[in-house]
Design a protein that fits this description.
321 residues, alpha/beta, 5-stranded mixed beta sheet, two-stranded parallel sheet, 13 helices, globular, disordered N terminus, DUF3431, signal
Length: 321
């Protein structure tokens, strides 16, 4: 029995030695294969759908490294010709224009609006974004004027100028539609009225703004009304005349629609002059922007006091012909 066990152990030992010798004899072949495989010939393919575009990664242009920027999803682009339309599609005959911070979510402008091309101007000067203002100055007026100047020869029939917020009481309290929604407001807009009238304020509730928010020659002067105090001098600089109205009234807050024909009643150089004033004025950001808030209706052909009744406004702006 012991002899049989010793023979078995000896046989296993011989088999192990033979196997090890065979592997050593093949080692030169393995080395030869590895020497002919260069790093350039080793390719790893990553399918785009498997890339994790984590929200924790810094967005391009805001402090990320070059390697991180190359991994980012392509940013949505908004060009003058067809901002939100596929490249093979005809542009819509309506445009919506807004200024936004690079951190604002404005996807609603390209996904929820019916028949509108979106022109979103990033105001905090991110050079990687196709449309951006030169400086973050003058509130929404900067983006509005930039669009008109850049697209003066390419305007659609109707242009709406709005803020970047989609809905909600705190941010969009001045939007009259259900849930204070700009989507509801724009999708319900009666563009026939815009074409007839040239201008439509998207806010029908008169307060604040109507009937006499700004009185440039109020006596005694109320220094707390900074827009009113600055208005007369701003008018003279912007329009180059002394025809400053005694009273200006319009429902706030610089969200409106205009027709192409109405925009073209002023020359491109006039809009350039307005924008230059906005960029060069020593007025603070809020005051300079609010000056335009009470000028837009006048710029686009309305009387200095534009305060239709609430009912008439809703019928005109959101009714159907």
């Amino acid at each position: 029995m012991h002899s049989l066990l010793r023979l078995s152990v000896a046989a296993l030992t011989l088999m192990t030695i033979a196997c090890f010798y065979y592997q050593l004899s093949d080692l030169p072949n393995i080395r030869n294969v590895l020497q002919h495989v260069s790093p350039e010939k080793v390719q790893v393919t990553v399918h785009p759908s498997h890339v994790d575009y984590s929200t924790s990664r810094t967005a391009p242009g805001f402090g990320s490294s070059q390697e991180e920027e190359q991994l980012e999803q392509p940013a949505a682009t908004y060009t003058e010709a067809s901002s939100s339309s596929p490249s093979d599609a005809e542009p819509n005959d309506k445009a919506v224009v807004m200024g936004a911070l690079s951190t604002d979510d404005v996807t609603w402008a390209t996904t929820q609006l019916k028949g509108w091309d979106a022109f979103v101007y990033t105001v905090d000067n991110n050079a990687s974004i196709t449309l951006h203002t030169d400086r973050n100055k003058g509130k929404e007026a900067n983006a509005y004027l930039s669009y008109i100047i850049q697209n003066y020869e390419l305007l659609p029939s109707t242009v709406a100028f709005v803020h970047s917020h989609e809905f909600g009481w705190l941010k969009a309290w001045h939007t009259d539609a259900a849930r204070h929604s700009n989507v509801e407001s724009l999708n319900s807009l009666n563009t026939n009225f815009v074409q007839r009238n040239g201008y439509a304020n998207l806010r029908c509730i008169p307060n604040p703004g109507c009937p006499d928010e700004v009185r440039p020659f109020r006596e005694p002067v109320d220094e707390s009304k900074t827009t009113e105090v600055a208005f007369a001098a701003a008018w003279r600089d912007i329009f180059g005349n002394d025809d400053v109205p005694e009273v200006i009234g319009v429902a706030c807050c610089a969200q409106f629609a205009v027709s192409r024909d109405q925009i073209l009643k002023r020359t491109r150089n006039e809009y350039v002059r307005m924008h230059q004033w906005l960029m060069n004025t020593e007025l603070d950001d809020s005051t300079s922007g609010r000056v335009f808030e009470y000028l837009w209706h006048i710029i686009f052909g309305q009387e200095s006091v534009y305060c239709p009744s609430v009912g008439q406004c809703y019928r005109d702006v959101y009714g159907s012909d």
